[in-house]
Amino acid sequence: MYRTASGDVEVLLGHPGGPYFARKDDGSWSVLKGEFTDEDPWDAACREFREEVGSDVPAGPRLDLGSVRQKSGKTVVAFAVEGDLDPATSVSNDFEMEWPRGSGLMKSFPEIDRVEWFALDDARRKMLPAQVAFLDALGNQL
To answer: By its UniProt entry, which PROSITE patterns does this protein fall under (predicted)?
Structure first.
């Protein structure tokens, strides 16, 4: 999601939840995303947005931002829509994992522990490096 605030473009990014990202900030934020196989990529993006933010994607034209391959090997396909969202209202689904590792204890964590709006220059610093290409694609289409 993107918006224009005081003449500047801002993007909504999510910070991954769970213990591995608890102390990480720069270089760890992401577009809201998830996995899909046989599902239409746009339908998957709308589903994942709803799961990670707790609200539907705003109606309106969508921009195709292409795809990138992350360091992990995961390919991410991204779209952008114009809209606005109060980060304080965001509610993510949870996932379970063994924590601490090797303890046999299962704990629940939010998939996305927070979302925030960032100006494009700040987003470049906050995002996973491979995903910065999405900001360039967005800028080229606005």
So the answer is: NUDIX
